[in-house]
Amino acid sequence: MTFEESGADTRLTHCGREPQQHHGAVSTPVYRASTILFDTLAELDSKEGKRLRYGRRGTPTTHSLEDAICALEGSDKALATPSGVSAISNILMCFAKPGAHFLVSDSSYGPTRKFCEFVLRNLGVETTYYDPTIGAGIEALVRPETALIWMESPGSHTFEVQDVDAIVAVARSHGIKTAIDNTWSGGFFLQPMQQGVDISMQAGTKYISGHSDIMLGTIACTEEVYGPLRETYLRLGLCLGADDAFLALRGLRTLPVRMRQHHASGLQVADWLAQQPEVIRVMHPARPQDPHHAQWKRQFTGASGLFGFVLAETDRTRLARLFDHLELFGMGSSWGGFESLLVPSNPAVYRTATEWEPAGQTVRIHVGLEDPADLIRDLRAGFDRLGA
Asked: Quick check: 50 pLDDT over 80?
C-alpha cells in the first residue's frame, strides 16, 4: 500500500515529516531564517533541486506545512500564506487583468467581496455575484472574458451548499479556472480537487490551526496553475512565519479527531435548537430537514461545527440578555477553534444577487469541543433570560 492509498488519519499523521533530515526530530523544527548561505559560487548559481534559497521563499518548516496541505487536499502543489484573506487576495490577483470578468458566489466571505469591489474594480476587473444554488445555470452568466469562478460551499453565514460538479463542468467547457473556499470542511470533509476544482483555499486560522492562536491561509492547487499563483505570491511578498507554520502542523495532526467531534456535537446542538420555540429555523446542511441536505450528502463526508439559526427576537436590548451572560459560548470573530462561539450576524448587508430575509435575528454558532450537553444547558439558560 502506498502513502497515497492509506487512510486520511494515517496520511495526516505522517505527511510533511522527514525526521531523518532533522536529526530524528519527529516534528519539523522551527527554522527562523532570512539569509541562506552557499559554500561555492557554483552552488549559488545552481537552481537545480534548490528548494531553500531565501527565507521569504520558504523554510523547511513552511515547506513541511505545504507538503502536508497537499496530502490533506489531494493537490499537486500548495502555498502557505499569512492569513485566509491573503490567500484569497493572492488567488484573485493571479487572474486579474484589465477587462477580465469574475463570477463570485453571493454567499462568499465578506472580505472576498470587498477585495473584488475595492481592489479589482480599480484594476479594471468586473465581478458578477451569482446565486450560490445556481448550479449548471451559471452558464448563462459566462462571458468570453470570464477568467475565474469563485465558490464557497457552504456559505459561512447562510450555509447554502453549491453544486460544485455542475459548476466545474460548465467552467471546463469554457476553459475557465475555478477556485473554492473550503474552510468550512477543514479540507477533511470535502475534497474539491477530486471534483476537478483548480484551486482550494482555506483560512487555516480556523480548523487547521484548531486553537485560535495563529493567522494562516492555505492554497492547494493543480500543477497547471501553481506557477502563476507562486509568481503572484512572490511579487506580493507573502510569507508565513516559521512559528505559525510549526503550530499549523501541530494542529493538522489532530484534525481528523477534532472534525469528527465537531460534526457529532454540532448536529446534537443543531437538533436541539430546531426544537426550541425561540428558534424560527436552523441552517445546518447535514440535517435531513435542511433544504441543502441532498447536495451536501452527495459531496461531503461530514460537517464541521459551524452553522446558523434564526431567532424570533430581534430587539437588541433583549438579545443582550442572551448573549451577555453565556458561560461557555464566547463572542468573537473567527471560528474553528476548540472553543464554542455565538454571535449575531446580518448576512443581508453582503447580498446583491439574492436576498436574505430571515424574519428574525440571524445567529452564527460554532460548536467547539465542549460536552454538547453543557452547551445546550448554557443556551437554554440564555433563552430563559431572553424570554424573561
From this structure: no
297 classed as catalytic: no
Does residue 89 sit in the same domain as residue 184? yes
39 compared with 68, residue with greater pLDDT: 68
Whether 128 and 158 have beta carbons less than 8 Å apart is answered as no
- pLDDT band for position 3 (cuts 50, 70, 90): low
Is residue 308 within 8 A of residue 362, CB to CB? The reply is yes
Per DSSP, the residues of 303-347 read --SEEEEEES---HHHHHHHHTT-SS-B--S---SSS-EEEEE-G
As a whole-number percent, the residues of the chain with pLDDT over 90 amount to: 84
Q: How many domains is the chain built from?
A: 2
The x, y and z cell numbers of residue 349, run together, are 448587508
SS (H, E, C) 216-233: CEEEEECHHHHHHHHHHH
CB 168 within 8 A of CB 121: no
Amino acid at the residue 57: R
Please identify which of the residues 32, 50, 53, 56 carries the catalytic annotation: 56
The active-site residue out of 67, 163, 181, 198 is 181
Residue 140: how many other CB atoms lie within 10 Å: 9
Residue 278, pLDDT > 60, answer yes
Per-residue model confidence (pLDDT) at position 24: 79
Same domain, 349 and 217: no
**Is 109 a catalytic site residue?**
yes
pLDDT of 213-230, one tens digit each?
Answer: 999 999 999 999 999 999
Catalytic residue, candidates 77, 113, 177, 206: 206
In terms of domains, do 216 and 291 share one? no
Which of 109, 129, 207, 350 is an active site residue? Answer: 109
Residues 237 and 107 in one domain: yes
Measuring CA to CA, which residue among 113, 149, 178, 376 is closest to residue 267? 376
Last residue of a domain, one of 215, 233, 253: 253
> What grid cell was written down for 364?
452564527
Catalytic residue check, 181: yes
Give yes or no: residues 225 and 362 share one domain: no
Say if residue 306 is in the same domain as residue 222: no
Q: What is the pLDDT of residues 155-168, one digit of tens each?
A: 999 999 999 999 99
199, 227, 253: which is the final residue of a domain? 253
Domain that holds residue 101: 3-253
